[in-house]
Design brief:
With about 90 residues, the chain is α+β, with helices and mostly antiparallel strands. The chain has a single domain, classed as Ubiquitin-like (UB roll) (Roll). It contains 3 helices and 4 strands. The chain has a 4-stranded mixed beta sheet.
Length: about 90
């Protein structure tokens, strides 16, 4: 994890795009900084924020320096979890 810069921001990545967001931002805030429409899709449950491992990330969770977020279809994630549980 990296510390906030002197201006109080941290560097995060959303869909491979680097962004500087306030250290107090949430994962959803980071998505909104890149793409407000995608953030609306997350809020509506149509998309999910995943971490660098592909696991669901809490949209209300605080960001940390170097965080990597990816947006995925909520349906695709549900299907993947169901498939994994069936194994």
């Amino acid at each position: 994890m990296t510390s906030p810069t002197p201006d109080g921001t941290v560097r995060v990545f959303v869909n491979a795009t680097g962004l500087s967001v306030p250290a107090s931002a949430t994962a959803l805030d980071a998505v909104r900084a890149l793409d407000p429409a995608a953030a609306d899709d997350v809020a509506a449950g149509r998309r999910v924020i995943a971490d660098s491992r592909g696991l669901p990330a809490d949209p209300a969770g605080r960001v940390h320096g170097g965080a990597i977020y990816r947006l995925v279809s909520a349906r695709a994630l549900r299907d993947a979890v169901t498939e994994e549980q069936e194994l």
